[in-house]
Amino acid sequence: MLSLDIAKNEVRHLFRERTFFLILSVFILITLASTYIGWSSQHTVESVYQQSVLTLTAAGKNIPPSPFSNLPPLDIVKNMIIYVVLIGSLLAITIGHAIGTKDQKAGVVRILFSKPLTKKDYLMGKLISMSMVLFAITGVSLIISVISVAILSQISSALLLNLIEFYAISYVYMLGFGFLGLSFGLMKKESATALLIPIIIWVLITFALPEMGSALYPTSSLNPVLPQTNILDSPMLSAIHNVLYPFSISEHYKVLSSLTLGLQQTTTTAYVAYPPLISLSILVIWLLATLGVSVRSVSGFDISRGDIYE
Q1: What's the rounded Cα separation, in Å, for the pair 215 and 218?
Q2: Beta carbons of 257 and 166 less than 8 angstroms apart
């Protein structure tokens, strides 16, 4: 019961945080725009193709197939993959940080633990509140994507299931970053340091590891799917990739998301190819590891701590 009371209080306070509202607004807006952007790009190219068909027909020349003839219906949603990697994970860190530092900023830690409150109840309340808020945000994004796909393309029970699976994977991925934000919010005395460390980890996971392990395609961290290329292949680059790839959480997320949405994807043949179950297992391990860090942080949490320094 104490855990639920803490969770309710955390949720109420979170929705008064301006930084949280700013990043949340950006995430919702890009969710609204992502499907339209994907559809608009296809529509523009298709219009050019149809004009070319008329010109080639009048000239009596062969007509090439449409560039979108074999694209899956959910291809227009693929931009959400990179939006989750870039914006969704930052939103999760912000949520975790706000929940982890709230009581210390308010200077009420000693007052809270003067009541019959255990560290276990304290942690559970914060974990529940963060998980609930992130789940609600993911659910809203799912509803927006389903409506957008239904309006701009087509929707079926199979495609709906694919979208649900995609957002479930996204939830697991973002929740790990939320746990990181919470952990350092509880561990660090300075609010800026508590926010900076998980952001540095986010940069390493999102940019550094993919770039270090993907010199064959240096813009891969900004692409929702891996490129179809064998350019600049070499044993050294492939070896670096194979060593770092297990730790590239964002790459595993992008691979799983691409497969879930039915997107076409090929990688250089020299690379280690992981089955989807292995990539999913790595994401689950990532979630459990960050949860373990949260448990460790609250076990060493000083209940006599005063105000946190900004």
Answers
A1: 5
A2: yes
